[in-house]
């Protein structure tokens, strides 16, 4: 006669629970080993290693960029690697919800920029990453040369979002945005967003959030002998989405028919 189970209501400990506990312990141990430096991994794949502007981008690049951008000192250290001529700017309040902190005045990036402009450190860092890993590669691939100058429309401005009647400020109001109208190449060619974007490449039409002048519309739709400039502009626009939070262009609305808007902010959009 079989001996009855003294605890008939007790269930065996599920093996799955044991597996999960072991996995959690292993993950905790691995994380502690990496954090403490007991285990060495390549800097490129170490999430706690500082951002390097010249490092080949990988799955951790955006994490490192955002981590550096969120810390005043870390951002300054990372930006010091950039091929930029700049001057730190004192923190400043210029109006209601306007002003900037941890900003720099940029006289030149890796290319000429025309007039100086002010950007927050985090936005300047994104600009440096975009120039290093997107801009020049796109120029070489699609145009066979390099970019010599960026033609911008400005950065800091104490204003609301376009068409915003309330108090919602633009990222320009905190020096977290830059508008780019075009590029001048090493061989002297000039590529402009207004003339060379060609919405027809993507089969899209800008929305009518802002009026477009007849002159601008006529110039933007002129025929040209090739589409290399359009492909270049699309490459630098799409590539910017890896380093900025909001990237807007002519396909977004008519207010952006003649420029790209790049910013660091609270939400993400690539249009």
From TrEMBL:
Q: Which domain of life is it from?
A: Bacteria
Keywords assigned by UniProt, alphabetized: Membrane, Transmembrane, Transmembrane helix
User: What are the residue boundaries of the Extensin-like C-terminal domain, all occurrences included?
Assistant: 74-199, 223-271
Query: What InterPro entries would the database entry show?
Result: Extensin-like_C
- Which sequence ranges are marked TM in the entry? 15-35
Tell me the protein's name.
Answer: Extensin
Q: Which organism is it from?
A: Lysobacter soli
């Amino acid at each position: 006669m079989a001996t009855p189970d003294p605890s008939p209501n007790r269930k065996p400990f599920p093996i799955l629970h044991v597996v999960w506990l072991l996995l959690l312990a292993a993950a905790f141990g691995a994380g502690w080993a990496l954090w403490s430096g007991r285990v060495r991994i390549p800097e490129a794949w170490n999430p706690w290693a500082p951002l390097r502007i010249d490092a080949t981008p990988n799955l951790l690049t955006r994490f490192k960029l955002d981590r550096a951008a969120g810390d005043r000192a870390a951002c300054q250290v990372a930006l010091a690697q950039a091929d930029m001529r700049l001057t730190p700017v004192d923190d400043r309040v210029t109006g209601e919800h306007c002003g900037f902190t941890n900003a720099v005045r940029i006289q030149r990036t890796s290319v000429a920029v025309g007039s100086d402009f002010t950007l927050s450190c985090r936005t300047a860092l994104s600009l440096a990453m975009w120039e290093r890993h997107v801009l020049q590669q796109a120029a070489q691939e699609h145009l066979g040369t390099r970019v010599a100058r960026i033609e911008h429309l400005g950065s800091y401005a104490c204003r609301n979002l376009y068409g915003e009647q309330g108090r919602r400020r633009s990222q320009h109001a905190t020096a977290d945005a830059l508008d780019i109208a075009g590029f001048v190449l090493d061989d002297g060619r000039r590529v402009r967003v207004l003339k060379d974007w060609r919405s027809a490449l993507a089969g899209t039409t800008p929305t009518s959030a802002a009026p477009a002048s007849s002159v601008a519309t006529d110039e933007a739709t002129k025929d040209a002998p090739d589409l290399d400039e359009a492909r270049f502009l699309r490459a630098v626009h799409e590539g910017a989405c890896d380093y900025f939070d909001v990237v807007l262009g002519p396909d977004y609305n008519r207010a952006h028919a003649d420029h790209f808007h790049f910013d660091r902010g609270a939400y993400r959009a690539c249009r």
